[in-house]
């Protein structure tokens, strides 16, 4: 069973920075794509950023220019570096892994809370 464990969330002031980590129970290269999504209260889950096995990245509009996704296969870890945080970034952030072989398999972590507030 694939497990994804997020960490690094917390309370940060507006304008601050935070780095989230997602440790995966298998090599991140075994997945076609890794990503971060977030869900604020009363809102749908939305894309933050994804990274493919080949290193191609994609960002949601709210993350462009402020967040950076990266992966370290030696540590089986995917990171999300967040800068210039805004109150509207407050949400539960979820790590996601997608494997596409004969069938598409999608895995989620339990989420980590990020609160941006003064």
Question: Could you give the topology of this structure?
Answer:
Blueprint: E1 4-7, E2 10-12, E3 18-24, E4 33-39, E5 46-52, E6 57-59, E7 67-72, E8 77-82, E9 91-100, E10 104-108, E11 112-116
Parallel strand pairs: 2-11
Antiparallel strand pairs: 1-3, 3-8, 4-5, 4-9, 5-6, 7-8, 9-10, 9-11
Note down, in words, how this protein is organized.
With 118 residues, the chain is mostly beta strands. The chain has no helices and eleven strands. Strands 2, 4, 5, 6, 9, 10 and 11 form a seven-stranded mixed β-sheet that branches. β7 and β8 (77-82) form a beta hairpin. It is globular. The chain starts with a strand and ends with a strand.
Measured distance between first and last alpha carbons: 40 Å
Order of helices and strands: EEEEEEEEEEE
Helical segment count: 0
The main sheet comes to:
7 strands, mixed
Q: What structural category do the secondary elements indicate?
A: mainly beta
Oligomer: single chain
Question: Mean of residue pLDDT?
Answer: 96
Rough outline: globular
**How large is the share of residues in beta strands?**
over 45%
- Using DSSP, what is the number of strands? 11
What percent of residues adopt helix (DSSP H or I)? under 10%
Rg, Å, rounded: 14 Å
Low-confidence stretches are none
């Amino acid at each position: 069973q694939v497990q994804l464990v997020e960490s690094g969330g917390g309370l940060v002031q507006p304008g601050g920075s935070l780095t989230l980590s997602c440790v995966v129970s298998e090599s991140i290269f075994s997945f076609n794509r890794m990503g971060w999504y977030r869900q604020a209260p009363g809102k749908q889950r939305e894309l933050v950023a994804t990274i493919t096995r080949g290193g191609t990245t994609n960002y949601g509009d709210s993350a462009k220019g402020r967040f950076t996704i990266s992966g370290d296969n030696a540590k089986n870890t995917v990171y999300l570096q967040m800068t210039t945080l805004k109150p509207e970034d407050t949400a539960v952030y979820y790590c996601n892994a997608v494997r596409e072989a004969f069938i598409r398999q999608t895995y989620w972590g339990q989420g980590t809370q990020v609160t941006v507030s003064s």
